[in-house]
Write a structure and sequence with these properties.
With 260 residues, the protein is of the alpha/beta class. The chain has a single domain (2-257), classed as Rossmann fold, CATH 3.40.50. The protein has helices at residues 12-23, 35-49, 65-75, 100-128, 149-168, 188-191, 205-217, 227-238, 241-257, and strands at residues 2-7, 27-32, 53-57, 79-85, 131-136, 174-180, 222-224. Strands 3-2-1-4-5-6-7 form a seven-stranded parallel β-sheet, sandwiched between helices. The protein is globular. NADP nicotinamide-adenine-dinucleotide phosphate binds at residues 8-14, 32-34, 59-61, 86-90, 109, 136, 138, 181, 183-184, 186-188, 191.
Length: 260
Amino acid sequence: MKVTLITGASGGIGEAFARRLAAEKHNLVLVARTERKLHELCDELMLKHNITAHYVAIDLSVPAADLRLFEETEKHGMQIEWLINNAGYGSMGDFAAMDLERELDMINLNISVLVGLTHRYLQQMRERKSGAIINVASTAGFQPVPFMATYAATKAFVRSFSEAIAEENRPYNITVTALCPGPTDTNFFSVADAKPLQIKGMQSPEAVVEAALSGVKKGKASVISGWTNYVGSIFGTLTPNSLVTRVIGGVLRPKIESRK
Ligand SMILES: NC(=O)c1ccc[n+]([C@@H]2O[C@H](COP(=O)([O-])OP(=O)(O)OC[C@H]3O[C@@H](n4cnc5c(N)ncnc54)[C@H](OP(=O)(O)O)[C@@H]3O)[C@@H](O)[C@H]2O)c1
């Protein structure tokens, strides 16, 4: 059975991927911690689109979670054709004052789990000479971001890693795409305690998914969703980090200090 596996599918961008790809007749494995949401979504999508949809309710931040998830799909004979590494979260604040455990868990989820799942499923894609991997990065990964230091660095990793392996896998008919959304209307900001960054006119998760799928069709190694995000990201890379960090730090510092 050919299947698309989506991590972080219980809400936000991951749920939007699930809804859109179900409509395109992908069979699905949906992964997140909130079992009730995954169960309801699977039932809804199977009924509506006549596909198969399974879920694995798992906390991906616990050690060896990527291996457990891989073994679960192997046990059920699932052939993962598309892998969407979307589960992730952010955090906002003065790094020295932040909860270290949560920062380390974030690095594990945003980076280690993504690398682990990519490596495991890539072996089989290479044998079949087909597959698609979408790794959700962020426009935050285009420059260092004071007061979101760890999160932005995890997303810089995801961009760099994904674009590098996209090239490695070109001869194998496998696309790897780093998806870089800008501010998107999801639960991200409340989970990250980053309400000051919520802006009017954020992209919808559906618009982000649309940009991603169009990029995958074109075999792009990197997709920035939305033209304002595109311009902002290019500006971020062309401007010296010393200036970018001073400007972002100057804007965010009063917001962080006013929360104390
Ligand atoms: N929203 C934005 O502005 C924005 C911008 C750029 C990039 N991104 C990236 O987009 C991705 C999706 O985020 P989103 O905006 O859709 O946020 P979201 O609505 O908070 O969704 C995050 C998803 O990840 C899952 N998740 C979180 N921790 C998990 C864990 N330990 N184990 C398993 N699943 C876990 C959540 O499900 P459960 O809580 O049920 O586990 C949820 O399904 C993230 O990688 C984020 O960094 C978001």
